[in-house]
Please model this.
Amino acid sequence: MAVEEDVARVFEEVGGPLAALVATLGGYRGGPLTSVTAKDIDELTAVNSKTAVLTLSQAHSYLRKNPEGASVVLVAARSAVTGGPGGALYAAVKAGVANLALSASQEWLADGISVNAILPSTMDTPANRRDMPEADFSCWPTIEEEAEVAAFLVSDRARIVSGAAIPVYGRV
Model:
């Protein structure tokens, strides 16, 4: 779980000004809503929302120092906008991350910082393949494809894009 001092230390070590930040922090836990515990809520919120808020909060001054402007991409999830059975808590938390990107984009507009979110569906990772061996992996977006979208969003070609939640669903 993110600790504010640890996040601040990372940015102090990296230094600035920063031109871009892609925050890929997060985690998944599914299951029926009726089985969600207070511990589940705390853990999923901490690993997704808290880390995103602390990262943005600490990064702001380093991003703002870039005279050319800066860009941020947060990783939300497809379920943030679609919901779905067995993942209500995850969907709600990731919806918060997507809304954080929208709100930060408006707040930081005057600082020349664009903020967007990407909404991946199930990503083609070794862990997902292991956990869902019967799935059609060929439909899932790869980590490299997700990274290409994030790279575009932090590039000069996307300077006018801010506050967006970009679907990156693959062919699912």
The chain has a mean pLDDT of 95. The first helix runs from residue 4 to 14. Residues 4-10+17-168 form a domain with the Rossmann fold fold (CATH 3.40.50.720). Residues 7 and 13 are 10 Å apart (CA to CA).
